[in-house]
Structure formats: structure tokens, C-alpha cells
Amino acid sequence: MRLSSRKLLGLMKRSLTPNNPYHAQWLLTRRCNYRCKGCTVWRESQNQKELSTEEIKNGLDILEKLGVVEIVLSGGNPLIRDDIAEIIDYASQRFITTVYDNGSMAVKKIDALRNADFVAISLDTLNEEKNDYIKGVSGSWKKAMEAIEILQKEGINVGVSPTISQLNLDEIIDFTKYFIYNGIPVWYCLYWYDYPSGNRLFQIGKKQTEFEITDRKTMVKVCDALIEMKKKRNGIFITNKTLEALKQFFLNGQRTWKCKALRSFLMVDHLGNVAGCHLQEPVASIFDLPDVWNSHRLKNLREKFSQCNQCAYLCYIFYSLHSNVLSNLEILQDQWKNAKSLMSRA
Ligand code: SF4
Ligand code: SF4
Predict the structure, then answer these.
(1) Is the pTM of this model over 0.90?
(2) Would the CB of 292 count as within 6 Å of ligand 2?
């Protein structure tokens, strides 16, 4: 973890300033070398234009001014970019920076990843055959497991990121135990899919019936079990508030959160277009921020999004639940044991 005093002070100041968009995801590229079943990204043209290194750095400066605290660099596979080392280096001097990899490129780009605060390797199950089926690439499980082991040995804050779906729901607790007992934190995604829409920022999730969580009771038990495990063990990177919200959602369809898209979080695509979430149409170019952020147009959109219930992507639920100064402190309180162990390694 990279913690200079400039970064620490900046993070504290921005976390304690009300009404900032604390969370940003930057989908740096649409290119990807995997063929995941529940994903639409690889099904589209891979020869798309992207921002230059300097444009991305400029955009990161703008996000800092806007008050962003933590950023997720994803794609496609962000490690495909030749300049990823420079981008991670620049981002991690300003934000808590997480970089996603499907497990195929982290070892090759290990030096670039040394500056990231967290590296999330997506892996869905301990069952090799099933994982390869989900990823659409034979050998993906082995590569991901090797990457996790090598990054951990190299002292990089690597974690594993399963997408919880009907296909692995029964295994999530054993999966979590396996990794946290081996000192590897786990942070979760939840299977969801994009609804049909004409003009969105980005298409990611594909409807895939076998992935849809139909066993709601087991999902609730998983949430309860994770809450219990968190009392005794480090390494489970999901807040109780999020787990409780998920429980209610799966028990009775109740949303205990209001979406905070374009309020506490925003998305940026490979061309620098900004939207509240990837399912909404772009509202500005990143280079129009921060001026446009307080416009009436965006204020009206925030109101509209707060009524939206079109998706249940876990990251958006988390960002919506943790959307003000108090809830930033709640994250720290909830994740204090994990934060302490990470800071001791900084
Ligand atoms: S889910 Fe991620 S790793 Fe898999 S194909 Fe889509 S962008 Fe690539
Ligand atoms: S609920 Fe929020 S994150 Fe989901 S589609 Fe609507 S605006 Fe986007």
C-alpha cells in the first residue's frame, strides 16, 4: 500500500468533505483477452480508440479536484494497456487505487502492480473446470491461482474477487475460508446483467439464466455467515451494512438504499465519457469536470437516479450505502482490522 503523507492528508480531507463523489471507476479499455460467459465486453469490437496516457493523468487530476477518494481501474483488462504502470503510479499517489485483472496478466505486469493499493484477481470458484467454463478460457483457474500466490509472495496487496452467482453460491463460504485462512482477502461482486437501453456508457453484464440467483434462502445464509465470520477473522472486504442490505434484497426484494449514482460515485469510460453508472448515458466528458458537476442538469439527473431500481450490481450498492462523511467513517470502523493490517505493511 502506498501511503505518503501527501496522499494520506488528501484522502482524509476528501473523505471528510461532504457531498463529494468518493468513488470512481475508470474503465480504461474495452480490450480483453478473456471470454467470460456473463460479459458483453469481449463480444464487441476490440479495436476501439482510447485516451492517451497524458489525457488519463489529466483526468485523474480532475477527479482529485472533484473529491474522489478511491478509484477502481478496470476494463476490459486494464493491464492490456502498455502504459498501465504509469497510470497506476499516477493514480496511486492520489487515491486508494484498486486494479482488476482476470488473473492472466498480473504476473507479466507485476512491476506495474507494485504501486497499486490493491490488486483484485477475479476468480469465481475453487473448482478448476467450473472456473474455466465461466471465464470461457481453458487454464484461467491455474493462471489466477498462480498469480495470487506470486503476488502475495512479492508483498503486493492481492485479493481475490469472486462474482457470486447461482453457479457458485453453495461454495462462497468455503471459498472465503480457503483464501482468508491463507492471508488473501476476498471482495465480492454479485452477478447482475444490463437491461436493454439505447444509449449507455458501457455494456458489461450479459443476461445468463444459469448465473441468476434463484436460491434466495442460501444467499441470505451466505450473508449471515459472512457477518459472523467477520467478527473473528480479517480479510472479508465487504461492510456489514452492505451485507444487511443484500439480505433484505434477497429476503423480500426490498431496497434499503437509494441509488447515489452521480452523487457519491461516477464512471468514466475508455474515451473519458462520464456517467452516473455504466447503464446510464454519458453526461459529460471528464475534461468538462469539475465545472459541470454542480450544474442543474446533473442535479436533476441525481434526483432521477435516486429513484432508479434497474440494477443490483454490488459495487453500486456499496457506493450508495456509503455515500457521506459519516458512512466513510463507518467503512473505516467496519474494516478497521483490515485497515490496520494493511497500514502496518505500508
Ligand atoms: S468479465 Fe472482465 S475478464 Fe471477463 S471477458 Fe469481461 S472484461 Fe474480460
Ligand atoms: S440503480 Fe443506479 S446504478 Fe443501477 S442502473 Fe439505476 S442509476 Fe445506474
Answers:
(1) yes
(2) no
